[in-house]
Amino acid sequence: MFSLKKSELLIESCWLLAGNIILAIGVAWFILPNDVLTGGLAGVAIAIEPIFHITPEIVINVLTVVLFLLGAVILGKRFAAKTIFSTFAYPMFLSLFSYLANHVIGADVFIMDKYLATIYGGALMGIGIGCVFRTGASTGGMDIPPLILNKYTHLPLPSLVMLIDALTVLLGAMVYGLQPALMGILSVWVSSFMINKTLMIGGQEAKNVMIISNKHKEIMEYIHKELNRGTTLLQAVGGYSQEKRPVIMAVIVKKQLHDLQMIVSHIDPEAFVIVTDTNEVQGLGFTYKEEL
Fold this sequence. Notes:
By secondary structure, the protein is an alpha+beta fold. It folds into two domains: about 5-200, no CATH class; about 205-280, Alpha-Beta Plaits. Helices cover about 60% and strands about 10% of the residues. It contains ten helices and four strands. It has helices at about 5-30, 40-50, 55-75, 75-105, 115-135, 145-155, 155-175, 180-200, 215-225, 255-265; strands at about 205-210, 230-235, 245-255, 270-280. Strands 2-3-1-4 form a four-stranded antiparallel β-sheet, with helices on one face. It starts with 5 loop residues before the first helix and ends in a 14-residue tail after the last strand.
């Protein structure tokens, strides 16, 4: 089985620790003080507070442990091993930062405009969750019901996550009304956006270019010598003509796209070029150092 080096294990531990701290700060200092509806356990805790009159911190801490135990039973030991740290670290940090806000810094400091709390709280939650997801772990909590449903229904996991978040916001709408629910949707969107951005840290945005041309040798030579990028030659067959044609595949950084398009149009004006976005590339020249 693949095992991490000590340095890699240390880096993953730092991501995991930082993620739980940032998530707890976003919830304790922005979401809870301003009763912002959002997805996850924070949204559930805020939505049911007027009904059961239970402190949100207690609801979050209890449900985090309960859902972890449920996930461990249904999803297995591997899930439990990856999630156990967040299950106990997140409630601990949430209690710590809530105590600091209420008894040390002062609760009034964190009472702010709802829109600011929604945006910044959602952003911090997204960054925190993204940091945890980078390690392949889970934050536990409301990540677990979608995972359980996915196991038995095989429905797409992103759709199930959105469904659970939508039900959470709907519950809040029944208690607080339409406007807080709409702000909750904004919080969920900001959080999702920041999760994706956090997962992209360290990656390099690039373009995957597919070129079909009879002058493929000249184009490949330019890519190799001028752009200092590698190419892969694929063999394709025309669907209508049934003729065999070589297809050049090259991954380049975004700023090189214009030069490549110009030279391709100069070498072969009839070349067929397909360009797609590539969010992350690993390999020589992108994530590994080139040999000098």
